[in-house]
Every structure is written in C-alpha cells, then in structure tokens.
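Bench log. Compound arrived from synthesis this morning; before running ITC I wanted a structural hypothesis for how UFG sits in the protein. Inputs:
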Amino acid sequence: MLNILVTGGAGYIGSHTSLRLLEAGNNIVVLDNLYSGYRWAVPKEAVFYEGDIHNRALVADIINKHDITAVVHFAGYIVVPESVSNPSKYYQNNVISSFELIDICIQQGVKHFVFSSSAAVYGIPSTTTVDETVEPNPINPYGRSKLITEWTLQDLGFAAGDEFEFVALRYFNVAGAYNGGMLGQATPEATHLIKVACEAACGKRDGMAIFGTDYDTSDGTCVRDYIHVEDLAEAHLDTLDYLSEGGQSTIVNCGYGRGFSVKEVVKTVKEVSGSDFSVSMETRRPGDPPQLIADNSKIKKVFNWQARFDDLETICRTAYEWEKNLT
Ligand code: UFG
C-alpha cells in the first residue's frame, strides 16, 4: 500500500489510473487545477486538492501531510496542433511547471516518480516500430516539452542518486473508456481522432475531417498505435510495483505494437455506432508524423504488463458508449 500523489487525476487518463490505483489498495491524493479535468471524475475515495503543480508550497504541504512516497504526474497539455500554434503555453506548463514539481518532490524526499511522456518525442521514426533506444527527435513543441521533462528527470534524478528513481512512460494514442461506463474522455473541443469520430457518430458535430490522405502509408492516412485507457492505467500500477521492488530509473513505451490508419479508425467507429456520419478529406495537419507504432517488448518484459483490450473495436465501442451518455 502506497501513499500516491496523482497530478492531473481529474483528467481522462489520470482519473482512470487513480481508480485503478485505489482498487489495488493504495491511498490516492489528487492535485488538479481543473483546467481540463472534472471534479466528478476524481474517485470519491481519493483526497482532492484544486491547485497548480507549480505551487511549490502547496505540493510540499501535500507531500508532508499525506506522507507521499510516490508521484504520478499526468497534469499537462496534450494537443499537438495547439502546441504548434501556441508553444508558450506548452513551455510554460509542460516544461516549467513540471520542473517545479519534480524539483520540490526531490527536495521533499519523494522516492518514486512516474511521468506521462509521449510517443511524440520520437518525431518521424525511420523504423516501422519504434523502441526506447531510438534517438528522440520530436517535430512539434508538444513532443519537445515531453522530452525536456524526461531530461529534467534524468538530470535531477542523477544528482539525487539512490534517493530518487523515475519511470517515463511514453504513451502512444490513448483512447476508449472504462468498461463500467463511469469514466471516459470529457474534454471539450476535442481534437483526438476517436473522440472526434464518436462525437460525429452521436450527432454532436456535423461530420468530421480526415487530415491528410497523401502520406506514404497503406491507404494514405496516418497510422497510430491506439491503446485502451484501462490497459494504460494498469501499466502505471505495474510501474509502481517495479519501482517498489527496487527498479532503476528507465523509459518505457506504452502501446500494443500494431497500428491502424485514420480511415480504418473512422470505419470502425461507423460500424460500432451504426452511424454513417459525413467525412471530408482535408489537407495535412501541421506536426503530424505519418506513422507511430510502439515496439512494446520492454514493457512486457520488464513490467510483465499484459494487454487486455488490444482490439480496435473494443476501444471504439467503449469510447462511443461513453460519448453517447455524456451530456
Ligand atoms: N485526425 C484526423 N481528424 C481529426 C482528428 C485527428 O484526421 O479530426 C488524424 C490526425 O491528423 C492524426 C491522427 O488522426 O493523423 C491521430 O491524431 P490525434 O489528434 O488523435 O492524435 P496524435 O497522434 O496527434 O497525438 C496523440 C496524443 C499525443 C501523443 C500522440 C502519440 O495527443 O499526446 O498521440 O502518438 F503524443
């Protein structure tokens, strides 16, 4: 049983993970400024603080008051195109605020830190699947903001010696919703493919667009490795077990190791919803790599992680069911 601080625990992935960590018997404290999270998404058994991760006094207070030994850091902005048009927002929050958080955590004696990094750090990989040894080369400010925070952890963690270990989890494309129907992605003005397609299927928007049909992929649209949010939540539990058992700092991909094109995703959402919403073909969106698929050997080997929802239909169906009930 651990006392865990979850930043961004009112958000999409943070709330699913908080729930899973609670189910496993841990004490959870959530810190979230509710910028894109919701108070209702925080499990009722968790202690909740509304506030910012760069508020060092608040974070120090929480760590001491709740005897926090592990931090899972989700809080951050996540929209690739927005990072291209408004990079300052990403440097301010994802880079500077994360630095403040990591620094105060180490100062206050937090031992273990799990960071929500991203496959966006890879940029445009030259291999079909990408493993953690590939040199990162992000092509957008979002990816850079995640890489800089990985470096922050490496440098500050190195200086702290055995007192501090971290794991950066590089998420691929997270989607789907909790099977019980009580949690899912609620972000307004969504930009993520499956969420957008589900909104179109529910009639919440007048159709959708496919951005780019001239990529060098099987059908010309971008290919991504879509991972169900419940499998990703489980990966955090496995990560904390690894650290509790004395695991060293490391970086791990979170994906299934296979990809689907934008067209395949849209087709699947149409099938599970029974809605033939309109789809227009548009030009490429800036900052999009053609293909991103995880080599997931490491997460399976080092954490013994097992995927339970590696199925595009299940991912799209749970996302659609959630969207239908979301007002
Ligand atoms: N897409 C469309 N139409 C839409 C929305 C998206 O065609 O309405 C396309 C995009 O152009 C892209 C693909 O669908 O080719 C996936 O786009 P998303 O916006 O769903 O996701 P991204 O791949 O841009 O980024 C997501 C997360 C990042 C993460 C990355 C890892 O937002 O946090 O996956 O692969 F880093």
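What the model suggests: DSSP finds ten helices and 14 strands in the chain. The chain has a mean pLDDT of 96.
ITC booked for Thursday regardless.
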